[in-house]
């Protein structure tokens, strides 16, 4: 093959390679577009349908079997139900049926009191490292030994500001909205079964709203402007549960908890119980200690440690969306259970020894 022919052959081969590259690039572009359409129109919608199915099924079975499931609890409740009704009647009479005052005391002051009582004890443990009986259950053992007092105090000031300037107005607004539904402080307390059902619904609604609002705040645009404040604590402590930017406190801390009582038109007593439980549970999730007989905080502690895992409360939507896939491969996942002994899970389920090169 002479020189001109070799040159022409080379040009032809180059043209074929360029054409093949263009076709490959177009194919990749089509795949990207198909993937985007799947995620936007199919994947997310499919996940939402699955979540609705799971939550709806849970509610159906709860309603269907609540009598048999709660029969023994109802027997225990028995006489104490009369006790609480008597105390409520006395309180209602003392306030002369003043709904606004009763609602504010029950839904703001009572939950806040228990929040600070619980976290006040934890802050003493965090800053002093005593008693050792508590600190031996620390999850991230290499951190917060002890926590700097100045750092805790900064968190406390932010939390107090959020409660005073945001939580109080929102509770007042909630009362205004809920009062349209009817009598919030009725003389008769709701039944035990109904309270359980409302607490279950409130918990499921919180899971949905918190998960999606939390994931939204992890978007780079919102994270660096808003959510980064909360993630200053990679090893959280209890009071940090409400340590957040004001926007996050409203949309991710308050609204997911408020939506249930508002939609259900709950009695003040139920709303007070729900707010108190929600605050204590989120404090436990952030406390940094996996204590016996308390809900496991491993799930949310892992979120603070690794940032892009475990966005929810119950973990239902994390499983549906696959945002707990890395967590489920860890020792923390093995420890994510109710501790029924006095032996710390870090001892009974120790970390895998690191390999030395």
From TrEMBL:
<keyword id="KW-0812">Transmembrane</keyword>
<dbReference type="GO" id="GO:0005506">
    <property type="term" value="F:iron ion binding"/>
</dbReference>
<dbReference type="InterPro" id="IPR050307">
    <property type="entry name" value="Sterol_Desaturase_Related"/>
</dbReference>
<feature type="transmembrane region" description="Helical">
    <location>
        <begin position="51"/>
        <end position="69"/>
    </location>
</feature>
<feature type="transmembrane region" description="Helical">
    <location>
        <begin position="102"/>
        <end position="125"/>
    </location>
</feature>
<dbReference type="InterPro" id="IPR006694">
    <property type="entry name" value="Fatty_acid_hydroxylase"/>
</dbReference>
<keyword id="KW-0472">Membrane</keyword>
<protein>
    <recommendedName>
        <fullName>Fatty acid hydroxylase domain-containing protein</fullName>
    </recommendedName>
</protein>
<dbReference type="Pfam" id="PF04116">
    <property type="entry name" value="FA_hydroxylase"/>
</dbReference>
<feature type="compositionally biased region" description="Basic and acidic residues">
    <location>
        <begin position="18"/>
        <end position="30"/>
    </location>
</feature>
<feature type="region of interest" description="Disordered">
    <location>
        <begin position="1"/>
        <end position="30"/>
    </location>
</feature>
<dbReference type="GO" id="GO:0008610">
    <property type="term" value="P:lipid biosynthetic process"/>
</dbReference>
<dbReference type="GO" id="GO:0016020">
    <property type="term" value="C:membrane"/>
</dbReference>
<feature type="transmembrane region" description="Helical">
    <location>
        <begin position="159"/>
        <end position="180"/>
    </location>
</feature>
<dbReference type="GO" id="GO:0016491">
    <property type="term" value="F:oxidoreductase activity"/>
</dbReference>
<feature type="domain" description="Fatty acid hydroxylase">
    <location>
        <begin position="200"/>
        <end position="323"/>
    </location>
</feature>
<keyword id="KW-1133">Transmembrane helix</keyword>
<feature type="transmembrane region" description="Helical">
    <location>
        <begin position="192"/>
        <end position="212"/>
    </location>
</feature>
């Amino acid at each position: 093959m002479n020189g001109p022919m070799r040159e022409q052959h080379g040009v032809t081969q180059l043209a074929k390679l360029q054409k093949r590259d263009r076709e490959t690039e177009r194919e990749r572009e089509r795949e990207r577009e198909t993937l985007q359409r799947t995620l936007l129109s199919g994947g997310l919608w499919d996940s939402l349908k699955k979540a609705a199915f799971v939550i709806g099924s849970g509610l159906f079975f709860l309603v269907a079997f609540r009598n048999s499931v709660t029969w023994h609890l109802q027997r225990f409740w028995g006489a104490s139900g009369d006790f609480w009704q008597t105390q409520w009647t006395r309180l209602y009479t003392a306030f002369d049926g003043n709904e606004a005052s009763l609602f504010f005391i029950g839904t703001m002051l009572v939950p806040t009191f228990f929040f600070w009582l619980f976290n006040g004890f934890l802050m003493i443990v965090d800053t002093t490292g005593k008693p050792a009986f508590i600190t031996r259950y620390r999850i991230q053992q290499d951190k917060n030994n002890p926590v700097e007092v100045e750092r805790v105090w900064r968190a406390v000031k932010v939390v107090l500001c959020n409660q005073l300037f945001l939580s109080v107005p929102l509770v007042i607004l909630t009362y205004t909205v809920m009062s349209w539904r009817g009598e919030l402080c009725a003389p008769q307390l709701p039944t035990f079964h109904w309270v359980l059902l409302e607490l279950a619904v409130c918990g499921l609604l919180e899971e949905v709203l918190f998960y999606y609002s939390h994931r939204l705040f992890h978007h780079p645009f919102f994270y660096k402007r808003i959510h980064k404040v909360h993630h200053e604590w990679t090893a959280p402590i209890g009071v940090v549960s409400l340590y957040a930017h004001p926007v996050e406190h409203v949309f991710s801390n308050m609204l997911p908890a408020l939506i249930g009582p508002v939609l259900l038109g709950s009695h003040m007593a139920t709303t007070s119980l729900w707010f108190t439980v929600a605050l204590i549970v989120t404090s436990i999730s952030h406390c940094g200690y996996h204590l016996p007989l308390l809900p496991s905080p491993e799930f949310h502690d892992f979120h603070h440690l690794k940032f892009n895992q475990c966005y929810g409360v119950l973990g239902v939507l994390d499983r549906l969306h696959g945002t707990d896939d890395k967590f489920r491969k860890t020792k923390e996942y093995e420890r994510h259970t109710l501790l029924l002994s006095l032996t710390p899970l870090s001892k009974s389920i120790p970390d895998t020894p690191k390999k030395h090169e």
